[in-house]
């Protein structure tokens, strides 16, 4: 498995785990019961990724739906990634990100970073962090620490409330 595919799969898993915690909290479970730590290390095989994604996240939007929501597209992207259909997965991630889905924006930011498309990485990560995605904010800080151009200004704007 290529390094790029491993990076993508790790961040898809990461985003899916974040969504699982939110969905679990909304379904009456104790929000403090966060399994993200144990799941984050299980990103090696397709079976492990599949086991970490809830059935809600794997659900496919209704056939015939002309315009899908960002959340539906994100779930569909996770499903396609799970099935190793990278082209469809990344098409859905991009569409969800363009519809302001913060986790999809972070996934694209990380992907652009791994492809050395730093300006695009900063932009997607900034958009996600501006929606109070704490993981995007942490990743943006990492970009600042690594000296990625534009990251420091984006972080300052978010922290000062200009975003």
Task: Give a brief description.
Helix content is 69%, strand content 0%. The protein is mainly alpha-helical and 163 residues long.
Give your account of this protein's structure.
This protein has 163 residues and is mostly helical. It has two domains: 99 residues, no CATH class; 64 residues. 69% of the residues lie in helices and 0% in strands. The chain is built from ten helices and no strands. Helix 6 crosses helix 7 and helix 8 packs parallel to helix 10. The longest helix is centred in the first third of the chain and has 24 residues. It is globular. The N and C termini lie far apart (38 Å). About 29% of the residues have low confidence.
Spell out the blueprint of helices and strands:
Layout: H1 3-26, H2 36-40, H3 46-52, H4 55-58, H5 70-82, H6 86-98, H7 102-114, H8 118-130, H9 134-145, H10 151-159
Features:
69% helix; globular
Q: What's the domain count?
A: 2
Q: What are the segments in which pLDDT stays under 50 over at least 5 consecutive residues?
A: 19-66
Calculate the terminal CA-CA distance, rounded to whole Å. Answer: 38 Å
> If you average the pLDDT, what whole number results?
74
Number of continuous helical runs: 10
Q: Hey, roughly how much beta strand do the residues contain?
A: under 5%
Structural class: mainly alpha
Using only C-alpha atoms, the radius of gyration works out to 16 Å
Note the quaternary state here: single chain
What characteristic shape results from the CA principal axes?
globular
Helical amount among residues, as a percent range?
55-70%
């Amino acid at each position: 498995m290529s390094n790029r595919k491993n990076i993508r799969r790790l961040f898809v898993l990461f985003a899916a785990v974040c969504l699982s915690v939110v969905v679990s909290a909304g379904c009456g479970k104790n929000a403090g019961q966060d399994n993200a730590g144990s799941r984050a290390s299980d990103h090696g095989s397709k079976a492990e990724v599949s086991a970490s994604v809830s059935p809600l996240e794997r659900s496919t939007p209704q056939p015939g739906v002309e315009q899908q929501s960002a959340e539906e597209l994100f779930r569909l992207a996770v499903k396609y990634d799970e099935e190793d259909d990278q082209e469809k997965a990344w098409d859905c991630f991009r569409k969800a990100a363009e519809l302001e889905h913060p986790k999809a924006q972070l996934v694209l930011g990380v992907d652009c970073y791994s492809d050395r498309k730093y300006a695009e990485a900063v932009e997607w990560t900034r958009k996600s962090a501006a929606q109070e995605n704490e993981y995007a904010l942490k990743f943006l800080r990492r970009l600042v620490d690594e000296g990625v151009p534009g990251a420091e200004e984006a972080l300052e704007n978010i922290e000062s409330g200009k975003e």
